[in-house]
Write a structure and sequence with these properties.
By secondary structure, the protein is mostly helical. Helix content is about 80%, strand content about 0%. It has one domain (about 5-410): Up-down Bundle (Na+/H+ antiporter like fold). The N and C termini lie far apart (about 50 Å).
C-alpha cells in the first residue's frame, strides 16, 4: 500500500506540473518536469536543514523505488518499444548507414574517449579511480536520450532525414551502450587479466546479435498473432505481452533487451501496422502507446529531479561532473564529424544536421539507472554523483537551448 501511495503522489505531481507547464511555461514536457522536480528536491533539502525528520521521511519514501531496477527493468522496455513504433522503415533504411555508424562506432569511441578523459580529471582532484570504472562511466553516459527534445524537433518542422537520424541513433545507441556497459561490468567483476579479446568479442556479440535476433522473433510472433484476428483490445494486449514477456525472455537468455525492443517495435510499427491491423486497431494501438510513452516519461523525468534528495553532492564531484560534461559535448561533436567524414556522408547530412545531432544528444534516465546499478565499490558514489551532474547539465543546459539552435540551423539542414 505504501508503494501505491508513493506512485499516486508521483502521478499527481506529474499531472500538476504538466498542467502548470502547458498553462504557463510551454517548455518541452520532459525538461519542465525535471526542472520542477529539481526545485521540489532542493526545497526538501532546504527544509531538511530546519526539520531533519521531514527530510528523512521524504528520503525513506523515495528509496522505496529502486530507481535503477525501475528504469532498466520496467520503463526502458516500454519507452524503447513505444519510440520505435514511430520509426518509418523506408526512412530508416535510407539512413541505415549513418545510424549504424553513429550508434555503433560513435558509441564505442565515445565510451573510451570520455572514460579516459574522466580518468585524468579525477586524478587532478587526487581521486584514484581504476581505469575500468572510468570506462564504465564512459559507457553509461554514451546513450543519448532525445525524448526531451522531440517536441521541439516536431515543432521546428525539420526534414525527415534529421529526425530519423536523431531518433534512430538514440534508439540503437541506447541498446549498444547498455551492451558495452554490461560487457565492462563483467570485465570489472572478474578482472581484465581474466578476459581476453575473443571473450570480450563473444560476450558483446551474444548480447547485441542475440538481442536483435530475439527482437525479430518477438516481432514476428506478435505480427502473426495480430494478423490472425481483428480485435483491437486483444491486439493491444498482445503488444503489451511482446514488451513485458519479451523483455523478461531477453533477461533469461542473457541477450540485450533494449535492442530486442527496438527491433520488435520497428517490426510492429511497420509490417504489423501495414498488414496485420485494421484501421481501428492501428489508431487505437498508436494512441495507447503514445499515451503510455507520455505518462512513463513524465514519471521518469520527475523522478530524475526528485532523486537529487538521495544523492551525495560534494563540491569536487560537481566540478568533476561539469568538466566531464564539457568533454562529453566536445567528444560528441568530434565523433560525429569524424565518423561522417570517414564514411563519406558528411556532405549528405550537412553541417547543420551534425550540429543539431551533437547538441541534441541529451543524456537522461538510462545513464542514471546504469550508474545506480553498479556493484557497491568505493568508486560508485563518485560515479553516481558525477552522472547526475552530467544529466542535469545536459537536460537543462542543452535542452533549453536546442530549440533556438534548431531554428538558427534549420535552413542549413537537409
Amino acid at each position: 500500500m505504501e508503494l501505491f501511495v508513493l506512485f499516486s503522489i508521483l502521478i499527481s505531481l506529474s499531472a500538476l506540473f504538466s498542467y502548470i507547464n502547458v498553462r504557463f511555461f510551454k517548455l518541452p514536457s520532459g525538461i519542465s518536469l525535471m526542472l520542477m522536480g529539481t526545485i521540489v528536491a532542493l526545497a526538501v533539502i532546504e527544509l531538511g536543514q530546519i526539520s531533519s525528520r521531514f527530510s528523512a521521511v521524504v528520503v525513506k519514501e523515495l528509496v522505496l523505488i529502486d530507481f535503477s531496477e525501475f528504469i532498466l527493468g520496467i520503463l526502458l522496455s516500454f519507452l524503447l518499444f513505444a519510440g520505435s513504433l514511430h520509426m518509418y522503415l523506408p526512412d530508416l533504411k535510407k539512413s541505415a548507414k549513418t545510424i549504424t555508424s553513429f550508434a555503433v562506432i560513435g558509441t564505442i569511441l565515445s565510451t573510451f574517449i570520455v572514460g579516459y578523459g574522466f580518468h585524468y580529471i579525477t586524478l587532478l582532484f587526487e581521486i584514484d579511480i581504476p581505469l575500468i570504472f572510468c570506462l564504465l562511466l564512459g559507457a553509461l553516459i554514451a546513450p543519448t536520450d532525445p525524448i526531451a527534445v522531440m517536441g521541439i524537433l516536431t515543432k521546428a518542422k525539420l526534414s525527415k532525414t534529421v529526425e530519423t537520424n536523431i531518433v534512430g541513433e538514440s534508439l540503437f545507441n541506447d541498446g549498444i551502450g547498455v551492451v558495452i556497459f554490461a560487457t565492462l561490468v563483467q570485465i570489472a567483476s572478474v578482472g581484465i587479466e581474466n578476459f581476453g579479446a575473443v571473450q570480450i568479442g563473444l560476450l558483446f556479440l551474444q548480447e547485441a546479435v542475440g538481442g536483435i535476433v530475439t527482437g525479430g522473433l518477438i516481432g514476428f510472433i506478435g505480427y502473426q498473432l495480430m494478423k490472425s484476428i481483428d480485435h483491437f483490445q486483444t491486439e493491444i494486449l498482445i503488444s503489451l505481452a511482446m514488451v513485458m514477456g519479451g523483455y523478461s525472455l531477453c533477461h533469461f537468455l542473457h541477450v540485450s533487451g533494449p535492442l530486442a525492443m527496438v527491433v520488435a517495435g520497428i517490426m510492429t510499427g511497420n509490417r504489423g501496422k501495414a498488414h496485420a491491423m485494421s484501421d481501428i486497431t492501428r489508431d487505437y494501438l498508436s494512441k495507447f502507446w503514445e499515451v503510455t510513452d507520455e505518462i512513463l516519461n513524465a514519471i521518469l523525468f520527475l523522478l530524475i529531479g526528485l532523486e537529487i534528495v538521495v544523492v551525495t553532492f560534494e563540491v569536487s564531484f560537481v566540478i568533476i561532473g561539469l568538466l566531464t560534461a564539457i568533454i562529453i559535448i566536445l567528444v560528441r561533436f568530434g565523433v560525429l564529424y569524424a565518423t561522417a567524414t570517414a564514411f563519406g556522408f558528411i556532405n549528405q547530412l550537412g553541417p547543420g544536421t551534425l550540429k543539431i545531432m551533437a547538441w541534441g544528444g541529451l543524456r537522461g534516465g538510462i545513464s542514471i539507472a546504469l550508474a545506480l546499478s553498479l556493484p557497491s565499490t568505493p568508486y560508485k558514489e563518485v560515479i553516481v554523483s558525477v552522472t547526475f551532474v552530467i544529466v542535469l547539465f545536459s537536460i537543462i543546459g542543452q535542452g533549453l537551448t536546442i530549440g533556438p539552435l534548431i531554428k538558427k540551423l534549420a535552413k542549413h539542414t537537409k
